[in-house]
Amino acid sequence: MGYPRKLTRRFRAFDNFAISFTIINIISGIFSSFGMGMNAGGPRILVFGWIGVSVMVLFVGAAMAEIASAYPTSGALYFSAGKLAKKHKGAWSWYTGWLNFVGQIGGTAATGYAAATFIQAYVSMQWSSYHPTLQQTVLITAGILVVQALANTYTVQLVAILNRISVWWLLVGMVIIVTTLIVVPDQHQSAGFVTHYANNTGFENAIYAGMLGLLVTSWTFTGFDGSFHMSEETVKATVNAPKGIVRAIGYSAVTGLLLMLALVYAIRDYGKEAGADAPPVQVLIDALGTGTAKMLLLIVIGAMLFCGLANMTSNTRQIFAFSRDGAMPGSRLWHSVSPRTRTPVKAVWLAAACSLVLVIPGWWSHVAFSAVVSVNVVGLFLAYAVPIFLRLRLGDAFQPGPWNLGRWGKPVAAIAVLWIVFSSVLFMLPQVSPIDATSFNYAPIALAVVLAIATVWWFATARRRFQGPVSYGRPDEVAAMDLI
């Protein structure tokens, strides 16, 4: 790929799959946004929306996996965009990298914020005198980001071990939660409850409100580009990275549907639970009792913390690669690698700091979580769309890697791009009515600010010096520069 090797290649096939499976994280994604779905469409959207969006995301993942097999580098999306573009390679690569950056930051921030919310829900159950506030949520999120940054500061082996643990935590945890929700409650909703519709968004248009509920599944299925970003640390990356992407999406779709159904059928008092501060927690309490609910909540919190850790790992690799090509302010700092741990330590702390900045509006905004989720979903999926679109435009001139879709490559890519365009427009729109300063969806502003900065910087200086991914020389020349 034209780069001297700086990162240790110690991720096995399972480790690569684990990073995306952990970032997708069905427990974290479903529990953190279940309340959003209860109020925007209800069980009908939660269940059937999960199935429909999962299929669409699988198209996106398969199209990305084909590209990952051809260009297995830490730069992932922005690198492949630069290689697939027929002309203006620098511009395509530049904007893809910045969209990927803001999307990754949004994912790390949203997962930390969700974990802080559920930690406070647990504390409130333990000590009734504790009352969560927006300010406390932001402060706890900051603490979580610091701990996750410290974990990512150490060796890649530690991250790999934690990701392996996280996979089993997710799978075993999912089995425990689903089994408990099936066996313990003395009653469940009727079979037809999955068609129940609810709209508490404030918007009168039922279709619009229901489509907003699709954000639940879309938010869960973000971050599978993590396998792509870890390519340079994965053995046999041209095969293991694309397999990691597709397997993570497929396994998450099936196990996530089981968890979603278990939660939906455990609902008792819909209005009370949908209006609670943490709706899925209230569902657990009403169906299982406080003691059992607290035990399951610990599983959920652990899953969220693992998810945030994996998010930050993927995030830092994108920052490392983007800086390696001189595309970020202070690039020399962010692509430096610790000689002791062989990890991009400075990039880790940049990711943590930027994630905290994105969470700060939560100090006063009660829709901060959904806004940060929108930043994550829209930023990442638009970054996914660019190389897929360029691969589609390239047609038969695209040179696939060992893992490819054959003649199905172009139709799969076309469906993926269409879905991303539709969902990105939807999730930038208002999500709650009436719209005021505390309920405004600031996702478009956050994305616009980042893109405005990228645009100004591009036309001011970057277009003259940034021509896309850097090549350090021929394979034999690069091998001679390898630092390991």
From TrEMBL:
Transmembrane parts of this sequence: 12-35, 47-71, 92-116, 136-155, 167-185, 205-224, 245-267, 287-310, 347-364, 370-390, 411-430, 442-460
Organism domain of life: Bacteria
Keywords of this entry: Membrane, Transmembrane, Transmembrane helix, Transport
Bilayer topology: Multi-pass membrane protein
InterPro entries xref list: AA/rel_permease1 (IPR002293), Amino_acid_permease_CS (IPR004840)
Localization in the cell: Membrane
Protein's UniProt keywords contain RNA-binding: no
Main location: membrane
The protein's name: Amino acid permease
Species name: Streptomyces physcomitrii
Organism phylogeny: Bacteria, Bacillati, Actinomycetota, Actinomycetes, Kitasatosporales
